[in-house]
Amino acid sequence: MGDFYRIIGAEMSPYSVKVRSYFRYKGIPHRWMLRNAASQAEFETHAKMPIIPLVITPDGTGIQDSTPIIDRVDKLHPEPSIHPGDPVVGFISALIEEFGDEWGNKWMFHYRWARDVDQISSAGRIARMRGPDASEEKHAAFAGQVRARMVDRVWFVGSNAANAPKIEAGFHDMLGLLDRHLATRPYLFGARPAFGDFGLWGQMYEMWTDPTAGALIGGGAPHVLDWVHRMLWPRAEGAFETWATLEPTLMPILTQQVGRLFMPWTLGNEKAVAEGKEEFSVTLGDHVWTQKPQKYHARSLGMLRAKYAAVPDKAALDPVLQAAGCLHGLRG
Predict the structure, then answer these.
(1) 81 domain-assigned
(2) Which pTM was predicted?
(3) Are 248 and 211 a contacting pair, CB within 8 Å?
């Protein structure tokens, strides 16, 4: 099989580019392979689920789901570390990674499929990736099929007429908070990328490639834009910071985005899954959010709680999580 990993993914998949960025940062030999007709047979051989990315290890083992992929590979390639040694900063990084994967994906999916200009752009790019040699007629037909299918799936992330204003307002707020935080540092937790960078960046990178969200990032958040570019080929430029230096601009993100919006949603989703509900509603700030439950996310919340439980000394961490509105949900 060779001494390199193979990543079967897609440029338009936030979880695929997240894993690719991680492999690039670590300097792990790998081959990036688009999931299309050329890689389909290999994908079917190694995949247990119809999702990307799929990472095939040098010994021929298939691994799926971006967070478990990074957790597993990082045990074999721990340096340069993506986990700050400070127990507060280290866990906040894991929390931001989960927030990016699950809440950031709502921004990305909504903006990608909410407006005609983004639908046309995205469907066309997906169709060309899957059929690079198709004639213009076949390409147009396939792009139309992709557009119809994906627009019909926005409910999955909670995008609907009632929630759309909240999704967009929340993203505008986050963009301002994130731009202020990145104004004085190259990465979220200092001078090198952390676990949290990869999770949040994957969603932001995808948004930057789309017309509407890309204009918001490029036209109003220059430090976020620099970070988006930097994370394509991240590198260690120095050390992780302490919580004391991160807190002034990172705590507002935790309180206003993670604690106020994401944590109530994830707990409501977990409860709905446990009770077998077809739909649930939860109050997020001044808005009632209604959507179908996401079963996978209930499992990923369990994995985040396990990481919290594994923190040996929580004396400094718990007050931060309490102030951010996250402690109760993490204790289960």
Answers:
(1) no
(2) 0.96
(3) no
Query: What does the alpha-carbon distance between residue 118 and residue 116 come to, in Å, rounded to a whole number?
Result: 6
Amino acid at 21: S
Residue 8 pairs in a beta bridge with 33, 54
Residue 39 pLDDT: 77
Q: What angle do CA 19, 173, 262 make, to 5 degrees?
A: 60
Contact predicate 184/127, CB 8 Å: no
CATH of the domain at 54: 3.40.30.10
Q: Which helix (H) or strand (E) holds 332?
A: none
The answer to whether 317 and 307 are in contact (CB under 8 A) is no
Residue 82 lies in a domain: no
Sign of the torsion formed by the C-alpha atoms of 70, 228, 294 and 325: positive
Count Cβ neighbours within 10 Å for each residue of 256-270 and write b for 16 or more, e otherwise: bbbbbbbbbbbbbbb
312/200 Cα distance (integer angstroms) = 26
- Token pair recorded at residue 288: 């009632």
Q: Quick one: CA dihedral 62, 55, 122, 124, positive or negative? A: negative
CA nearest to 89, candidates 180, 187, 23: 187
| Interhelix angle 211-220/116-130, nearest 10 degrees | 110
Q: Which of 77, 41, 72 is nearest to 55 (CA)?
A: 72
Residue 279 DSSP SS3? coil
Query: Is 14 found in the same domain as 49?
Result: yes
DSSP 50: S
99-133 residue pLDDT tens: 999 999 999 999 999 999 999 999 999 999 988 99
Low-confidence ranges of the chain (pLDDT < 50): 1
Give yes or no: residues 133 and 14 share one domain: no
- How does pLDDT run across 219-256, given as a tens digit for each residue? 999 999 999 999 999 999 999 999 999 999 999 999 99
Q: Is 6 helix (H, G, I), strand (E, B) or coil?
A: strand
pLDDT for 302: 95
Assess contact for 28 and 77: CB atoms under 8 A: yes
